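Hi,

I'm pasting everything inline rather than attaching a file, because the server keeps stripping attachments. The sequence lines come first, and each chain or strand is labelled.
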Amino acid sequence: MRLRKQIAKAILLLVVTAVLSSCVSVAAYQKMHLNDKEMELNARKVEYFEINAASYREGAVGINGGKVGGGCGCN
Amino acid sequence: MQRYILKLFLLIFCTFSLSILKGQQTQQIDEDEQVEKKQASDWYEENEVDINILFNYYDQDGDHAAVTGGIGTEELQSGAMKIIVNIPLDTVSILNIATYANVYSSASTDNIDTNVSSASKEDLRVQVDLGYTKKIGNRQSYTLKASGSTESDYVSKSIGGSWSMDSKDGNKQLELNAQAFFDNWVPIFPEELRGTAITLIPTTKRKSYNLGLNFSQVINKKLQVLLAAEIVYQKGLLSTPFHRVYFESEPLPRIEKLPSTKLKFPFGFRVNYFLNNYIILRSYYRYYVDNFGVKAHTASIEVPIKFSSFFSVYPFYRGHVQTASDYFLSHKKHVLSENFYTSDYDLSAFVSYKIGLGIRYKPVWGIGRFRVLSKKKITLFKGIDLRIAKYSRSDGLDAYMISTNFAFTME
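And the predicted assembly:
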């Protein structure tokens, strides 16, 4: 079990390293697709309430723009 | 575990900082100029008052209410509204004001006592957020924010800030954010336990501190990723005073009891891929672990299908699986020798999913124009977002939700 976890971590590290090292330089004029509204790397504003509801109904929170425990009676 | 998390955090921060610095050195000057021109024009476009008016209706039902010790109805209806206003103060700073109001009716909190009170059946939650963002040069910005919220049994204040920096080529961004919450409970206990020793609680205060790190990276012309990690430390009253817990050998319940400190560590990523002019893939993954024993995996995928540049429909699916907290047991399964106990099914082991559909309609020239507040200023109705979702948890809790966002700009 411990070995499997270590292998999984190593694979994850390799994948992250491979992805980040494969980055190519993209100039501003080449960012037509990346600047598309649907490509934004954050939760949509309209998702706010759903993220809030999940923070109450689930034991896990964070890194999504939702509440992390303060300011409410959530977990 | 705390040391391990701090080391990991430091490692991620150093890696990304070095990555940004390295990227800066390898870029060509003409690309820099193009990016700076684009950033300047983006900022100019943002120099309009942006208004977002959001609505939500939420309806849930289940049979494991924590108020009644892990059994009983969880029926709840909630209506919420949020208004977000971004006001440019000058060419480099923006004031952000957000107000939020939520009215809900809960069958389970109505079971705190047999009398209808302001803390049960129906409740109102109000929140106000203030933020100030300032751009430093073309690549850095910082935000200062403060907020306050109140409901019948809870008052909260918070302060926070963030700092972000773009690489010169605009292909990387590093963001650090921190926030502190100072909350105070107005404890309301189950009717049959009021005035007994069982309701003695060490404090009514709760403090939460969170530190977050985001790093986004353009991989190629169609792919970009965001890596994110956060540490949350909480101290104070972390249990809910009106949650009952029944023991196998006692007829009367006790109130939920949980440790007074909690450390949470979520981390994960977003990957967005522009498949073609019609289909985009938006994905998200989060791993979560805390010292209450909850470990969770959350993943979601959205597939926006673009019928035109201003109209898209996106089905989405979100899956979540978590282990139970060390302190959770179901109704009448707890024994008196335990130091901490809860029968809140939000902290139980379960699998949940959410499935739904979203629609985004945002024409280039807006849906309509009208004058409001001032005859000189024109308000542009920019677009609408609509989302409908069904949430289902393996313990039998089901919820339906509908949300809308109406976007306006005052020119």
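Residues 16-44 of chain B have pLDDT under 50 and may be disordered.

If the labels don't parse on your end, tell me and I'll reformat.
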